[in-house]
User: Which sequence fits this backbone?
């Protein structure tokens, strides 16, 4: 039974439009009570940031250790939260023991991991990132596919293989193809959007059971435009393919922003608002999730360190777990009146 969204929370704002709201987390986050409380108050879907990935589960002994991902699964079911499984096949989450494997040794191991993991949580997860980041235009393949061990071992059919296996083992989960960099305003991003549409058309044409496109939404303040006709057009074409969308990993890097905290927080909030307004305008969105909830832990401090050395402030709560302007901006966007694309579907669909 899904827990009732709490009043004045992001999940209650989202529920009014038939969406789920959530965030990524690690088991260590559950030890910080104010953060755990903020997650429980605001979220009705959670995503394991790391602990459900292949390299986090695999052990050098060849055994698998699901204890951490089981703990997150238990936390979600005990609190009536949906869980978005992340990520079954991702080139950056291949266990070290298999990084130089290829051919049948790799494909057997990859299939075994997918089958074991999907079977373990079948019927318990809302959705899966079945394949993460399949495209890389810079790899100059006509189909835009990233040259990964999965492509090497299975060929381009690896995407169909993964989705068909996941669908067989958990027919009720929403199966997501998750990608980064579709949101940006650059020739490379436009090329990636075109390649994604071609990939989706190819896969759907052969019956690959992709239910939803995951758009990671790692944004950069002062780079992300307020309006973005190419992104609007892309989302309309995704909708035309009959696919829903999940905003899977939203955060807003402030590395280009001035140091002043008030200014930064206002610019970040404005970026969240403009982006979500656009996406919610154009497509049916199943869930909006941020990539962690508070500034006390964000991958961006490593990926986009600020030139002035100040810690990033990319998320909705500050390091003392207090709401920031971004929280209010996301809530306003979720309540967005003009949301034409989403019919008030059951949030759990
Ligand atoms: O937990 C271990 C710890 O025991 C060990 O001592 C330490 C040093 O090796 O590593 C810790 O694990 C780290 C883990 O994050 C938890 O903090 C891994 O090394 C580190 O690689 C892992 O980074 C994650 C990264 O994906 C790779 O899995 C980031 O937290 C996570 O934010 C990032 O998220 C990705 C999405 O999955 C896909 N989209 C892009 C996004 C950002 O890169």
Assistant:
């Amino acid at each position: 039974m899904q827990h009732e969204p709490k009043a004045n929370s992001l999940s209650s704002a989202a529920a009014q439009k038939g969406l789920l709201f959530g965030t990524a987390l690690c088991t260590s986050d559950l030890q910080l009570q104010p953060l755990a409380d903020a997650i429980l108050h605001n979220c009705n879907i959670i995503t394991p940031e790391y602990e459900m990935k292949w390299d986090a589960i695999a052990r050098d002994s060849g055994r698998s250790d699901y204890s951490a991902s089981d703990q997150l699964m238990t936390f979600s079911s005990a609190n009536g939260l949906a869980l978005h499984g992340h990520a079954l096949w991702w080139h950056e989450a291949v266990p070290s023991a298999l990084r130089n494997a290829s051919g049948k040794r790799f494909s057997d191991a990859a299939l075994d991991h997918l089958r074991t993991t999907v079977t373990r949580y079948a019927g318990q997860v809302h959705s899966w990132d079945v394949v993460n980041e399949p495209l890389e235009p810079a790899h100059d393949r006509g189909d835009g596919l990233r040259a990964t061990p999965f492509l090497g071992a299975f060929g381009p059919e690896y995407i169909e293989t993964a989705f068909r296996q996941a669908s067989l083992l958990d027919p009720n989960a929403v199966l997501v193809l998750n990608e980064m960099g579709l949101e940006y305003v650059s020739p490379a991003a436009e090329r990636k959007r075109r390649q994604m549409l071609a990939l989706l058309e190819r896969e759907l044409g052969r019956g690959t059971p992709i239910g939803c496109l995951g758009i990671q939404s790692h944004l950069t303040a002062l780079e992300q435009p307020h309006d973005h006709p190419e992104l609007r057009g892309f989302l309309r074409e995704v909708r035309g393919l009959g696919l829903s969308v999940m905003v899977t990993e939203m955060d807003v890097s402030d590395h280009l922003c001035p140091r002043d905290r008030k200014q930064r927080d206002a610019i970040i909030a404005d970026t969240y608002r403009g982006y979500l307004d656009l996406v919610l305008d154009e497509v049916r969105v199943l869930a909006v999730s941020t990539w962690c909830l508070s500034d006390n832990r964000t991958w961006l401090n490593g990926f986009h360190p600020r030139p002035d050395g100040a810690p990033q402030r990319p998320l909705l709560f500050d390091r003392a777990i207090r709401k920031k302007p971004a929280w209010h901006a996301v809530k306003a966007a979720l309540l967005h009146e003009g949301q034409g694309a989403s019919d008030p579907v059951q949030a759990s669909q």
Remarks:
- The domain at 10-335 is CATH 3.20.20.80 (TIM Barrel).
- The pocket of G3I is lined by residues 49-50, 53, 92-93, 132, 180, 216, 249, 299 (CB under 6 Å).
- Residues 27 and 298 are 15 Å apart (CA to CA).
